From TrEMBL:
It comes from the Bacteria. The modification N6-carboxylysine is found at residue 157. NCBIfam families: D-hydantoinase (TIGR02033). GO terms for molecular function: hydrolase activity, acting on carbon-nitrogen (but not peptide) bonds, in cyclic amides; metal ion binding. This is Phenylhydantoinase. It comes from Cellulomonas bogoriensis 69B4 = DSM 16987. Belongs to the metallo-dependent hydrolases superfamily. Hydantoinase/dihydropyrimidinase family. Carbamylation allows a single lysine to coordinate two divalent metal cations.
Length: 472
C-alpha cells in the first residue's frame, strides 16, 4: 500500500516546509518537494491513494509517554483498558503510548512486566511500550533491573509519594539510582513528600475538611519542591539521569532549571491539566464536582501563577515535554469512593485523546511555536525514551505514524459523551479547540479519517526502546 500525502506543510521539531510525504507500507519512503515528481517521475500516478493536505499540517504522530491503562489504584482500576484507551489516543492523533508496568513490594519485577504485556498484547490500536515501576526496591528487584534493557525497557519509575503502596524511602531511591547509573537507565520520579502529605491529609480530615479541594491543600507545593530537590540531589550524587513526572509547581520547575543550569542531566514533564486547570476553579468546583479533577501532583492555584510558569518552562526548555498521566476513573462507582473523604478519591484525569489538540491551543495563543508543539508532544518523548528515528519525526525511514492536522478546523469537546475515552465525564468538557485531527496513520495504516475510525485492536505493536544518551 502506497500513500501520497500531498500539498501540506510538513512540521518537524526542527522546522516547517511545504512538502509531500510518500508512505510505502509501514514506513515513510520519501519527503518530496511539492509537486511530487522525482527524476521526472510522477509519483502520484504510482500510488494507491492520494491524500490532499492543502492548507494543513503534516506532523509526526503524538507520543504520550505517561499513561496508566487499567491501573489498579485506590481499590479500583483505571477505567480505560488498553483497547479503549489506545482507541481514544488514535482519535486524538497519538500513535504511541508508553504505559507503566507495575512491581509492588514483595512481587517479582519480571512478573509485573509479564502481566502488563499480557494486558496490552493484541488489544492496542496504536504502538505501545512500558516503563517499569519499581514499587518495592530490594535486592531482588535491583537484580531484576539488569534484564530490563534486553526487554526494551530503558526507563523505570520510583515514587516519593504513596507510603505503603509505591513509596520508596531515600535509601531505596539511592540504591536504585546507583543501579540505574550503572545500566544507563533513566530514573523517572514521582516527586512529592508522601509521608508529610499523609500527616496533612489526616489533620484536614480530622477538622472535617473532606471536600476534593483539600486534596490540593494537603499536597502543597512545598511537598513537590522539597521532593524534587531531594530527587535532584540523589541523582547528582549517583550520576543517574533524572526525569521528574507531572511537574505542576512553579517552585519545582525552578529546582529543575537550577540543576540544569549546573549541567545536571535532569528533565521535567508537565501535563495539560497543569497548564489549563486550577485549584480554585476545578478542584474547588461546587459539591463533589472537584473529584473529576483529583490527580497527583494536584492542580495548583492560578492566583500563585503556576500555570503561566508551566508555559514559560515549556518555552525555555526547563520543561521538555507534555504527557497526559492519563489515569481515568468514572464518577459513578469510582470517584464516588471519596464522597466525604477526599483521600479516597482515585487519583487521575483522562486526557489521552485530547493532548495534541490541547497543546495546539498553545500555538494558537502564541505560548509556543508550531515546531515546539511537535517537539513537546512527539519528538522529545520519542528521543528521551529511545524511539527517535522510528517515532517523533517525518523523515524517510521513520515509521509512517503521521497526522494531518487542520488548523482551520474545529473540535468541540462538548458536554456529555463526545469523546472516546471510557469515562462517564471528562475534565475537558466544554473546551473548544481551534484545530482538528483530520487523518491519522499508524505505520501506514489509516486509523482515523473523514469517515471515522478504522483502527483495530492488535494493530499496535510493542516498541522495544533503545538506551539514550541523556545530554539534552
Ligand atoms: Zn502517573
Amino acid at each position: 500500500m502506497k500513500t501520497l500525502i500531498r500539498g501540506g506543510t510538513v512540521v518537524n521539531a526542527t522546522g516547517r516546509t511545504p512538502a509531500d510525504v510518500l508512505v510505502d507500507g509501514e514506513t515513510i519512503a520519501a519527503v518530496l518537494a511539492p509537486g511530487s515528481t522525482l527524476l521526472g517521475f510522477d509519483v502520484a500516478a504510482h500510488v494507491d491513494r492520494v491524500v490532499d493536505a492543502t492548507g494543513k499540517y503534516v506532523v509526526p504522530g503524538g507520543v504520550d509517554a505517561h499513561t496508566h491503562m487499567e491501573l489498579p489504584f485506590g481499590g479500583t482500576n483505571a477505567s480505560d483498558t488498553f483497547e479503549t484507551g489506545t482507541r481514544a489516543a488514535a482519535w486524538g492523533g497519538t500513535t504511541t503510548i508508553v504505559d507503566f508496568a507495575v512491581q509492588r513490594a514483595g512481587e517479582r519485577v519480571q512478573d509485573g512486566l509479564a502481566a502488563w504485556h499480557e494486558k496490552a498484547a493484541g488489544n492496542c490500536a496504536v504502538d505501545y511500550s512500558f516503563h517499569q515501576i519499581i514499587g518495592g526496591v530490594d535486592a531482588d528487584s535491583l537484580a531484576a533491573m539488569d534484564s530490563l534493557v534486553e526487554e526494551g525497557i530503558t526507563s523505570f519509575k520510583l515514587f516519593m509519594a504513596y507510603p505503603g503502596v509505591f513509596y520508596s524511602d531515600d535509601a531505596q531511591i539511592l540504591r536504585a539510582m546507583q543501579k540505574a547509573a550503572d545500566l544507563g537507565l533513566l530514573t523517572m520520579m514521582h516527586a512529592e513528600n508522601g509521608p508529610a502529605i499523609d500527616v496533612l491529609v489526616s489533620q484536614l480530615l480530622a477538622q472535617g475538611k473532606t471536600d476534593p479541594y483539600y486534596h490540593g491543600v494537603a499536597r502543597a507545593w512545598q511537598m513537590e519542591e522539597e521532593a524534587t530537590h531531594r530527587a535532584i540531589m540523589l541523582a547528582h550524587l549517583t550520576g543517574s539521569p533524572l526525569y521528574v513526572v507531572h511537574v505542576s509547581a512553579k517552585q519545582a520547575v525552578e529546582q529543575l532549571a537550577a540543576a540544569r543550569d549546573r549541567g545536571q542531566n535532569v528533565f521535567g514533564e508537565t501535563c495539560p491539566q497543569y497548564l489549563y486547570l486550577s485549584l480554585e476553579e476545578h478542584l474547588g468546583a461546587p459539591g463533589f464536582d472537584g473529584a473529576k479533577y483529583v490527580c497527583s501532583t494536584p492542580l495548583r492555584s492560578r492566583a500563585e501563577g503556576h500555570q503561566d510558569h508551566m508555559w514559560q518552562g515549556l518555552r525555555t526548555n526547563d520543561l521538555q515535554m507534555v504527557s497526559t498521566d492519563h489515569c481515568p476513573f468514572c464518577m459513578k462507582g469510582q470517584k464516588e469512593l471519596g464522597l466525604g473523604d477526599f483521600s479516597k478519591i482515585p487519583n487521575g484525569i483522562g486526557s489521552v485523546e485530547h493532548r495534541m489538540d490541547l497543546m495546539y491551543q498553545g500555538v494558537v495563543t502564541g505560548e509556543i511555536t508550531l515546531e515546539r508543539w511537535v517537539e513537546v508532544t512527539s519528538t522529545t518523548p520519542a528521543r528521551m525514551f529511545g524511539m527517535y528515528g522510528r517515532k517523533g519525526v517525518i523523515a524517510p525511514g521513520a515509521d509512517a505514524d503521521v497526522v494531518v492536522y487542520d488548523p482551520a478546523g474545529h473540535t468541540s469537546i462538548g458536554l456529555g459523551k463526545t469523546h472516546h475515552m471510557n469515562m462517564d465525564h471528562s475534565a475537558w468538557e466544554g473546551f473548544e479547540i481551534d484545530g482538528h485531527v483530520d487523518l491519522v496513520l499508524s505505520r501506514g495504516r489509516v486509523l482515523v479519517d473523514d469517515d471515522g475510525y478504522h483502527g483495530t485492536p492488535g494493530h499496535g505493536r510493542f516498541v522495544k526502546r533503545d538506551l539514550t544518551q541523556y545530554l539534552v
